[in-house]
Design goal:
It is a single chain. The protein has 790 residues and is α/β, with parallel strands linked by helices. 33% of the residues lie in helices and 14% in strands. Strands 3-4-2-5-6-1-7 form a 7-stranded parallel β-sheet, with helices on both faces. Strands 10-11-9-12-13-8-14 form a 7-stranded mixed β-sheet. β17 and β18 form a beta hairpin. α2 packs parallel to α3.
């Protein structure tokens, strides 16, 4: 650890490397929790002398941060450690955000590689709940399977997690109850934690806790623990209308040249107001909050965290509560609005953090309004701070004080909620089960927006916003902003961009706003008061790897200009890729029968591409010379043509045809124990066919005599006999009788009954089933990438 970080580890960090990460790490702010979570895990995974320890340490470290501003800083610090260890080519370090592209190629494409994934609780917990924010809905099951198998989760600064804290505890408990393909573990970290907040119905106990020892207190860490600052109050409420002006005057007077001054405000609005006054002063001012587009946020963070020239004017950083978690910043002079006591302790840890400043000042004032916090919490903090007036205090002393904090009752994720979330099929109006209540309090719920030059008729571009364009925005503020303005969302059923009014705004969405209608400023970020046109950003990913807006009937990955791929070859490639991925990951929570079913699902997953509708689409994608030589490979799995025609039937899904063929009784699975599992995985591998099979409102008209249609497949459709690498597949007539709720007239169970039985079986369950879905999907991607490379 010393060679990675450039200094010797503290005793408690060494203990974590030797004994493993605990459930709860309870150490003061500024004592190296990020390193304690990262490098001990890495040591145990790669270097521990005991091979069993290495094997049992999860392959991925999932580092969850409560605030967006921290993500890039934390990622850069961790990357530095990995580079110092010369592991850059073997251990991935990635940011998990929206707009990443398909498939990311950095972590989903290499599931067996050791990796550290950093993101906010919105992005990461939503993926663990099968509702990945700012992600294609058809990729949700992949992330659900991966993030609930073989991961060491780390939750930082848990006092800021809100509803996500009990949610994370419940997910951990439910993983243990329902079973996973590979073990997952979780660690929660904070300097200020009420342990009873960690006790939930499915995870009532805290099994291991690590705190500082006497050895830590006598180590070099003692300098940080003894760092003091003088506490003083400011009276700013004598003129509430001039609050920002009075505060700016005080900060300007107390700021010292050549040093850093930090002001922490409880709301983005007040932070913006203060910054606008301070930026005209002698000392440069920087605004730090989470409501920026990534490149602007990174620029502001770099400016805020850069070294201060001791001979220069110094710097003033104005921040919101994002500064509380993980930001390694040390101010000589600091101001904070009164906040709940855990926040006061965290903010105080950013004043004279390393004990290097003489005469450090910690200033505070009562805010003009308690919101977004509870009024009683503000009142109790004001009372406690008033008793310390004029005293020198240490962060650890503040943390030891008993100051009442109101207990908030959050929605609790129950087993039935998790099981319901397994089905990612939206209702006919495009709505989904909302996981926002399990992640953020109502006033903190976000979605992502991008500003583009949108014509009056709405967006016409195929490519959705990429990461660099996306700005997180509070749901409630955007709803107000959209009164009289326009926004557009992608309708996955219709396959077009549609106008979204305030009532259609939901957490986790990605919306496009008209750049001409304002709402954003380069210096202050999201600003609903701004009427000036927004400077749109170009997408930062080329179209071939950009995230795709996928309609239900889309098959974008089927087209690979210049390279025709036969169905025979593709089935063979995917079957082999499934086997390789399972060998790489070695999921010991799966039975041999589960593994066999996964491999067979690779063998049959695209059988439905032999359907005449699919083959006609590929034929129509090419013309002239593009068709030369292609006839020899029929039926095809992928087109080498340059065109992108739509299927002749609306919403046609070849994987539904594959699943129906597998349950038709064709006699192809006689040696397989888990026949329903093979059919389910084949049907679900594009994220469209889930717990139920149903017709969509605008399906193509049925021919005379046909009784049923679902996702473009008609009752009585025929898959022709085809040659494959394992023999000839027979001609099969497809029946949609499984669309019903119960058994059909011949006593065969419906698709829904089969799928629910798989989801609810004790030896399989949602997490193992999700992992198998992910394995097949990743194998399909891997095989396709290899085919494109020839």
């Amino acid at each position: 650890m010393g060679s990675a970080a450039g200094s010797a580890p503290y005793p408690y960090q060494v203990r974590l490397a030797e004994e493993g990460l605990p459930e709860l790490l309870k150490v003061p702010t500024g004592t190296g929790k990020t390193l304690a979570a990262t490098l001990p895990w890495l040591y145990r995974r790669l270097y521990h002398a005991d091979a069993q320890v290495r094997t049992e340490t999860p392959r991925w470290l999932v580092f969850v941060l409560p605030m967006r501003v921290l993500v890039e800083q934390t990622t850069n610090v961790i990357r530095g450690w990995i580079e110092n260890l010369e592991l850059g080519g073997s251990v991935g370090v990635h940011v998990v955000m929206g707009g990443e592209g398909k498939p990311d190629g950095q972590w989903r494409d290499k599931p067996g590689q050791e990796a550290i994934l950093v993101g906010t609780l919105d992005m990461l917990l939503s993926r663990a709940l099968n509702r990945g924010y700012a992600e294609s809905r058809f990729a949700w099951p992949i992330d659900f399977g991966l993030f609930n198998s073989g991961c060491q989760w780390v939750f930082d600064e848990i006092q800021l997690m809100g509803p996500a804290l009990p949610t994370s505890r419940q997910i951990e408990g439910l993983r243990r109850t329902l079973g996973t393909a590979m073990p997952c573990r979780s660690m929660w970290m904070s300097a200020t934690v009420v342990e009873r907040s960690l006790r939930t119905i499915d995870k009532p106990s805290i099994e291991t806790v690590v705190e500082l020892s006497a050895a830590d207190r006598s180590s070099p860490l003692s300098l940080r623990l003894s760092a003091a600052k003088k506490l003083s109050s400011l009276d700013l409420l004598q003129d509430p209308s001039g609050y920002a002006r009075l505060l700016a005057k005080e900060i300007g007077a107390r700021h010292r040249r050549g040093t850093l001054t930090l002001a922490v405000m409880n709301t983005v609005e007040r932070a913006r107001d203060l910054y606008k006054i301070l930026r005209s002063g002698e000392a440069p001012a920087v605004l730090l909050h989470s409501r920026f587009r990534p490149q602007d946020r990174e620029r502001h963070a770099r400016e805020a965290l850069a070294a201060v020239d001791p001979e220069g004017p110094g710097r003033i950083v104005v921040s919101t509560q994002v500064i509380e978690a993980g930001v390694d910043i040390s101010a000589t002079t600091m101001f904070t609005e009164a906040a709940p006591w855990p926040s006061i302790v965290q903010r105080a840890g950013r004043c004279n953090r390393a004990g290097e400043a003489e005469g450090a000042e910690f200033l505070w004032a009562a805010p003009p309004k308690a919101a977004p916090y509870d009024e009683a919490d503000i009142r109790d903090s004001v009372t406690a701070l008033s008793k310390l007036e004029g005293l020198e205090v240490r962060s650890e002393d503040l943390g030891a004080m008993e100051v009442t904090v109101a207990e908030v009752v959050h929605p609790v994720l129950r087993r039935r909620d998790l099981l319901d979330l397994f089905d990612t099929t939206p209702d006919l109006s495009g709505n989904d089960l909302d996981v926002g209540r399990f992640i953020r309090a109502n006033e903190d719920l976000d979605l992502h927006v991008a500003w583009r030059p949108v014509p009056e008729s709405g967006p016409i571009q195929e490519q959705p916003p990429t990461r660099r364009e996306l700005c997180p925005v509070p749901v409630r503020e955007l709803r107000d902003h959209l009164k009289g303005r326009s926004a557009w969302r992608y309708d996955h059923l219709a396959g077009v961009w549609v106008k979204a009014g305030p009532e259609a705004v939901r957490p986790g969405q990605v919306l496009v706003l008209a750049a001409a209608e304002g709402g954003y400023d380069l210096e202050v970020g999201w600003n609903p008061r701004s009427k000036a046109a927004v400077d749109p950003l170009e997408p930062d990913l080329p179209s071939e790897v950009a995230p795709s807006v996928e309609a239900t009937g889309a098959d974008a990955n089927t087209f690979s200009p210049g390279r025709w791929v036969s169905l025979r070859r593709h089935l063979e490639d995917v079957e082999r890729a499934v086997s390789v991925i399972l060998d790489e990951l070695d999921p010991r929570g799966l039975s041999p029968q589960h593994r066999q079913a996964a491999i067979y699902s690779g063998r049959f997953h695209d059988w439905g591409k032999a359907h005449t509708v699919f083959q006609e689409t590929l034929q129509n994608s090419a013309k002239g010379a593009e068709l030369l030589g292609a006839d020899e490979t029929k039926p095809w799995a992928k087109s080498g043509g340059s065109g992108r025609p739509k299927h002749s039937r609306k919403h046609f899904r070849h994987e539904l045809a594959s699943a129906l063929a597998l349950i038709s009784g064709a006699g192809l699975l006689e040696e397989v124990v888990e026949t329903d599992l093979v059919a389910y995985l084949a049907g679900a591998h594009h994220g469209r066919v889930r717990i139920g099979i149903r017709s969509l409102p605008d399906e193509s008209p049925l021919p005379e005599g046909a009784e049923r249609v679902a996702l473009g497949v008609w009752e009585g459709d025929v898959l022709p006999s085809i040659d494959t690498h394992f023999g000839r597949l027979p001609e099969v007539s497809l029946s949609l009788s499984v669309m019903g709720v119960g058994d059909d007239l011949e006593g065969h169970p419906s698709w829904t009954r089969r799928a629910l039985n798989l989801r609810d079986r004790p030896d399989l369950g949602p997490f193992r089933l999700g992992f198998l879905e992910a394995a097949l999907r990743l194998a399909d991607w891997r095989a396709s990438a290899e085919e494109e490379r020839g």
